[in-house]
Task: structure prediction
Amino acid sequence: MLIIRLFDPIESFAFYFPSREPFDNPRGVTDVWFTGKSGGKLHGWLLLPRESEGPPPAVLHVHGNAGNVSSHLDFSRFLVDRGFAVFIFDYRGYGRSDPAASGLSRAALMDDTRAALNALLARPEIDPTRVAVYGVSIGNAFSTRLAAERPEIRAVVAAAPFSGWRRIAHTHAPLLGAALIRGGMDPIDSCTALGRRPLLLIHGQEDTIVPPAESARIERVAAKAGVAVTRLVVPGVGHNDIVYASHTTKEAMVAFLERALAKP
Result:
C-alpha cells in the first residue's frame, strides 16, 4: 500500500494536465451532469445528429490527458454529422467536473469513465444496444478497460494508444520512467479481452509522443487472442492531429463504426 501511495503522485504529475479554465458551450451540445463513484459531480456534453431514424447509435469519447472537453471536441464532433450521437466527458479535476479530492490516479479516472458509460446508457435519446467507445491517447487506458468489463460496448476505436504504462514511461524516461510508474490497467491486456468485438487501432506515422510501435504491439497480441483487430497507420500526421486533421482517419472511423453499430 505504501508503494502505491508513492507511485500515484508521480503518475499524477507525469501524466495528467487538466485545465479548469472557463469555456462556453458551442452550438449543438447538451450539458450532462452525473455522479461519479466518489460522489463528486462530473460534467459532459451530449451531441445528437440532426436527423435519425429512431434513436441513433452512440460513441463514448474518452479524451486525452490535457485540457478539457472544450479542447477535445474536434476529435469526435465530425461523427455527429455522420449519424452518431457523441458523449464526451471530463474526468474529475478537469473542466467543470468537481475537483479531485484526493488527487488524480488511473483508478479514479477509471471510475469516472465507468460513470460516464452509465450516464450515456441512461439517456433516452440514444440506442443503448448500439454503443461504441473511442479513446484518444491516454484515454485508451480507460476506454479499453471499460470495453473489457462491459459487454454493452459493441466496438472499440483506439487512436494513438500506448500498450502499457511502464512501457510508455520508459520511452520518455529510459529506465527511470519504468521504475517510477507501476503497471496495471494496460491497454494491451484490456484489448485481448474483447472477444469477438471489433477493435480499430489508428496511429499517426509521425507520432513522437506515442510511437506507432505501441499500437503495432497491441495489434499482434490482440490478433493472437482472436480479436477482430484492424490497424491503420496514417502518413504525415502526428499525435495531436491524428484525427481532426486527417480525412483518412475520419473516413476510416466512420466506416468502422457504421459496420460495428449497424442495426441487427
Observations:
- The CA atoms of residues 54 and 89 lie 24 Å apart.
- The chain has a mean pLDDT of 92.
